[in-house]
Specification:
heterodimer, A: about 110 residues, mainly alpha, two-stranded antiparallel sheet, 2 strands, B: about 240 residues, three-stranded antiparallel beta sheet, 11 helices, 3 strands, about 65% helix, elongated
Chain lengths: ~110, ~240
């Protein structure tokens, strides 16, 4: 039997970036460790993320200007959703919903 | 300091030692990390940061990937120049060692060791008729010295690149050799990367470089030799220079 956990990890992985954007939209600015707690909380533990994985993801979101990094003077470095991130998230959610609807129909 | 503080400080120090960058570039990053890890410790109730936050090597890698260190891949020209400086230095070290070895071995008067007559005297001894037993012993001793020289040569690259992320030639030219993520290399990576420089296989260095050059031309590599692609190592230089 193939390992179902591996399959799950493969398809869940794609939702990491969208859920991070959604969390930043709903709950405002956050930081890496807080996100590793927010993600499983929001997904009922279906999506978890190691702290070591979250840094590169935040970096790539930042490079795409979907999120901003703040805290040059203060100690804590926080991340928040940019305007570009807001409108991109809207677009992304439409696309994901469309995809999931069709997949659900198939599995019905 | 409490036991917890000691654990946290040494954890941050471990991550710090993987990052071969100036203090001012990583100070804030590490301060911030310390707070994060501390929160994780309070949260999980586990005073071991490795369990509460993650393996320091993986965290260092992730942190480094999330930073712009202001470096870019170094081109072939400057790298070959650095290698030439290194070769001059390391071959000088080896010769110094061999001459010193001969002095000790042949009991030459040190004050006259470097004069021509002392050296020719030494070669006279080597050329004089020896019985088989002494010949074998002499050959073994010479082999021992040759291995020593090879060891110095290899250790020069391996130890300097592991501990300082640069050989003397690279340091002079402002080059650094790091993992693809930007952190220091592991022993395994350093040995793999320097494999084609070792005595006995050094002629393959040419093919190693040519392979890398062909790859880079097609835009796939970033001035990496074949063994560097395998080791996931890369030589970088500061963007400002």
């Amino acid at each position: 039997m193939p390992d179902i956990i591996q399959w799950e990890a493969a398809f869940r992985k794609g939702f990491a970036k969208p859920i991070i954007l959604q969390i930043l939209k709903d709950e405002g600015e956050s930081y890496p460790y807080k996100l590793t707690k927010q993600i499983p909380k929001r997904t009922l533990g279906m999506l978890t993320m190691a702290t070591s994985n979250i840094y590169p993801i935040l970096k790539s979101l930042k490079d795409e200007e979907l999120i901003y990094e703040i805290g040059e003077k203060e100690k804590k470095i926080m991340y928040g959703l940019t305007e570009k991130g807001q409108s991109f998230l809207k677009e992304l959610k439409v696309s994901i919903t469309e995809f999931l609807t069709i997949m659900l129909k198939n599995f019905d | 300091m409490s036991n917890e503080d000691v654990l946290l400080t040494s954890y941050i120090q471990k991550i710090n030692s993987w990052l071969p960058y100036p203090k001012e570039k990583k100070f804030r990053l590490l301060e911030n990390l310390k707070e994060e890890v501390n929160e994780a410790i309070q949260d999980t109730g586990n005073s071991d940061p490795v369990i509460a936050y993650g393996d320091p090597y993986q965290i260092a890698k992730a942190l480094s990937l999330s930073q712009d260190w202001g470096t870019k891949p170094a081109g072939w020209g400057i790298r070959i120049f650095a290698l030439l400086i290194d070769l001059v230095l390391v071959i000088s070290f080896c010769f110094a060692y061999l001459i010193f070895g001969l002095i000790v071995l042949l009991k030459i008067d040190v004050s006259q060791a470097l004069t021509i007559s002392a050296l020719s005297e030494a070669f006279d001894i080597l050329q004089s008729d020896l019985d088989l037993g002494s010949f074998i012993i002499l050959a073994l001793i010479l082999l021992f010295y040759a291995l020593g020289a090879a060891l110095i040569y290899s250790a020069y690259f391996i130890i300097l690149e592991k501990v300082y992320s640069a050989t003397i030639g690279k340091k002079i030219l402002g080059l650094q050799v790091v993992d693809r993520s930007g952190i220091r290399l592991t022993w395994k990576q350093v040995i793999l990367r320097n494999f084609t420089k070792f005595p006995g296989v050094a002629e393959f260095l040419v093919f190693d470089v040519i392979f890398g050059m062909l790859k880079a031309e097609r835009g796939q590599g970033e001035y990496q030799r074949a063994t560097e692609i395998l080791a996931e190592a890369i030589v970088v230089r500061s963007k400002l220079r």
